[in-house]
Amino acid sequence: MEFSKPLDPYDPGLYDAAAHERLVEEPPKRVDAPVRTAFERDRARVVHAASSRRLAAKTQVVGPQTDDFVRNRLTHSLEVAQVARDLARALGCHPDITETAALAHDLGHPPFGHNGERALAELATSCGGFEGNAQTLRLLTRLEAKTTTPDGRSAGLNLTRATLDACTKYPWPRDAGPLPAGVHADGLPRTGVKFGVYDDDRPVFEWMRSGAPGARPCLEAQVMDLADDVAYSVHDVEDGVVAGRIDLVRLDRPAVWDVVRDWYVPDADDGTLDDVLSGLSSVEAWPRASYDGTRAQLAALKNLTSDVIGRFCGSVQAAMLAAGEGPFVRYAASLVVPERTRLEIAVLKGVAAHYVMRADDRLALMERQRTLITELVEALLARAPEGLDRPFADDWAAAPDDAARVRVVVDQVASLTDASAVARHAAVVGS
């Protein structure tokens, strides 16, 4: 059969009863309540979660307090959701599932973004480490208050299996994760393993992955992950241009290419990356003059982000439709990302990494942030349950051993925003 257009994602045959199942069975909704699908309810639960609101005050690349224009984790998540929903609709997988996964994908990030994640990973070695994606699963299935099990334990938001699975881009435990590669912004080697579940969250993980083919993420998770990469690469460059850190017409190519190899594609040579950048700069909206802050330039920059996002998503859609028949849902297919598109995304991420993440002033700030997180965790461990919010104090009281108590403190600190981490540090450690 020739497959030339996406299937209807609302066809009930595409997502079966197992995809709709929740870990805790819920009573029927009131007869006078608005009629919504199970996946629409999932989206509403994530939107209304406290963790979603906290994203507005968490670092994306630079701190949300630094500028009115710069993106924070919430605005980034909204942009990822828009890209993910549009791409899902084009492919024929469920847009509500994919959008919800995008809205939720950064919920587990701690204060100060990946820098805070790095600090917590070092502090949590005794309890199984820390990883933002594993923390997202923990939030969705345990820490967010919405549903309880029959024995009174929190079941988090109690999302459907399909939606929860779509939120999990690393569906394996820490001991099965791939070895880390590349370096951090300060040049030190990466040591943290990417994984999606802590050991004490394995029961719900096993339920969620029932029927899954090994460690392959479902298609909806792959779409979410690509949308994250697309938004990250394009919007971080946009922020850097407006902040005066990036000039797209005067890039230091050798320095940027070193970062691209260090962080993203170690086997790419200068000639390949030069050619990839030349292709990107042929986009009609690519600037021909340095950014000057005028409305005309702002409009041109917005047109550039739109054109590049369309370029990336269009290439993936074309590759998927050329690869074979649908349906492109759950485990029936894997996302096809052309190599050229993968390199174009890596080049833009490398531009942002070189001019923003590796800037000298940012490196000094990052070191202070890691020190603050370390001191805060150590102080809370020394005086807990004092200093913990009530839910975490209850978790501390129920913890069976020292490792579990470390996990409680890590959960508490990871829940904080940038500003509340600074305030809590001042309260328990001192200024």
Notes on the protein architecture:
- The structure is a single chain.
- The protein has 431 residues and is an all-alpha fold.
- Helix content is 55%, strand content 0%.
- It folds into 2 domains: 17-69 and 93-215 and 373-428, Hypothetical protein af1432 (Orthogonal Bundle), CATH 1.10.3210; 219-362, no CATH class.
- The chain is built from 18 helices and no strands.
- It is globular, with a radius of gyration of 22 Å.
- Residues 1-5 and 62-69 have low confidence and may be disordered.
In short:
This protein has 431 residues and is mainly alpha-helical.
Question: Which features would summarize this protein structure in a list?
Answer:
single chain; 431 residues; mainly alpha; Hypothetical protein af1432; 2 domains; 0% strand; disordered N terminus
Following the backbone from N to C, one meets helices and strands in this order, namely: HHHHHHHHHHHHHHHHHH
What would CATH call the architecture of the largest domain? Orthogonal Bundle
End-to-end C-alpha gap: 68 Å
What helical percentage do the residues reach? 40-55%
The overall number of domains is: 2
What is the gyration radius calculated from CA atoms? Answer: 22 Å
| Unreliable stretches | 1-5, 62-69
Major sheet size, sense and barrel closure: none
CATH superfamily of the largest domain: Hypothetical protein af1432
**Would you give the CATH topology of the largest domain?**
Hypothetical protein af1432
The beta-strand count equals 0
Helix/strand structural class:
mainly alpha
Number of helices: 18
Q: Write down the overall geometry.
A: globular
Q: Report the sheet-strand fraction.
A: under 5%
